[in-house]
Amino acid sequence: MRKKLCKILVTGGAGFIGSEFVRQAAALGYSIVVVDKLTYAGDLARIEGFEDKIKFFKADICRAARLDAIFKKERPCCIVHFAAESHVDRSIHDAAPFIETNIAGTQILLDISRKYGVEKFVHISSDEVYGEIKSGCFTEKSPMAPNSPYAASKAAADLLVRAYSRTHGFPAVIVRASNNYGPWQYPEKLIPVVILKALNNQKVPVYAQGQNVREWLYVSDCAKGILLVLEKGRLGEVYNIGSGYEKKNIDTVKRLLTLLEKPHELIAYVKDRPGHDLRYCLDCSKLRSLGWKPKIDFQTGTSLTVEWNRQNLGWLESKLKALSVYWKKVYRNT
Ligand SMILES: NC(=O)c1ccc[n+]([C@@H]2O[C@H](COP(=O)([O-])OP(=O)(O)OC[C@H]3O[C@@H](n4cnc5c(N)ncnc54)[C@H](O)[C@@H]3O)[C@@H](O)[C@H]2O)c1
Known about the structure:
Blueprint: E1 7-11, H1 16-28, E2 31-36, E3 54-58, H2 64-74, E4 78-81, H3 88-93, H4 96-115, E5 120-126, H5 149-168, E6 172-177, E7 180-181, H6 190-199, E8 204-207, E9 213-215, E10 217-218, H7 219-232, E11 238-241, E12 246-248, H8 249-259, E13 267-270, H9 285-288, H10 298-311, H11 313-318, H12 320-332
Parallel strand pairs: 1-2, 1-4, 2-3, 4-5, 5-6, 6-11, 7-10, 8-13
Antiparallel strand pairs: 9-12
Helix pairs in contact: 1-7, 2-4, 4-5, 6-8, 6-10
Nicotinamide-adenine-dinucleotide is lined by residues 11-12, 14-18, 36-39, 41-42, 60-62, 82-86, 101, 105, 124, 126, 154, 177, 179-180, 186.
């Protein structure tokens, strides 16, 4: 079923993954309404060129009256909910915005979606809700055991979505994604941080000895999987989405430095992040059985990402000032 006539309201559609979803869905002919607060992480540049296919509302999902007015006007039939505070390190320094947007904001969005009778609500969650796994992979039935305030806020939102499905028969489905990378990622996440620092010949910080393992999913593959769940995912279900490309962080960093033709001596090991999960791994057979599989392997994806960042260095550097103000403030207070 292609919900071609369906109007999709996308929260967080000016963010990294949300904007890729919006670009793909708009190209397929969906009618799209984007709701985004444009926090430090949001940027309309990501959806530039799609203005004729998208309606944009600068709005906070925590503001119920504003959200209600948007629903009343637009009457979306499906919701894809990406909006979140998404950076683990920030949640360690201040959990409050994570509780507000990721939990309270989700509850407000659920209530308004119920009120207006949406047909399908796709909630975007994370592999981090499961906690770490030393061997094997998490299935959708694995218990949640989040270890960071970010992961705990995402797990709480998942539980709310589940409770609304069970209690109210609310038509929701949850997607839990592994680490994404690709064009337009904000340069506080590992891969763009490494690229930006290395291009400026600065030291590249790596937590502990870089032994943590992440499963890297190229962002266009993630958005395709979410589209598939929107179209074919069964209500009340959870779907994991990961790539199977597991890498130790140190190997990811070395791969990027090699692509950038920079010396590995730029690597600087720094004190580990508190509560740092050693490894995540997702069993994605349930989503694969719907017909999805990743198209971009790690070698290709890292090459494409480095190339995009080289071509868009101005965009990356435009984020540096705000980032350094933020980190100076955080470190002054710790
Ligand atoms: N990036 C990853 O590797 C990854 C992996 C798994 C799951 N996820 C989840 O996917 C979703 C998108 O992640 P991302 O990396 O694109 O995040 P992002 O930080 O790049 O984008 C988040 C977007 O949400 C918007 N936003 C934040 N608070 C808001 C609010 N109160 N009201 C309205 N808009 C608000 C921001 O302006 C931004 O555009 C998140 O829910 C995240 O938890 C991300």
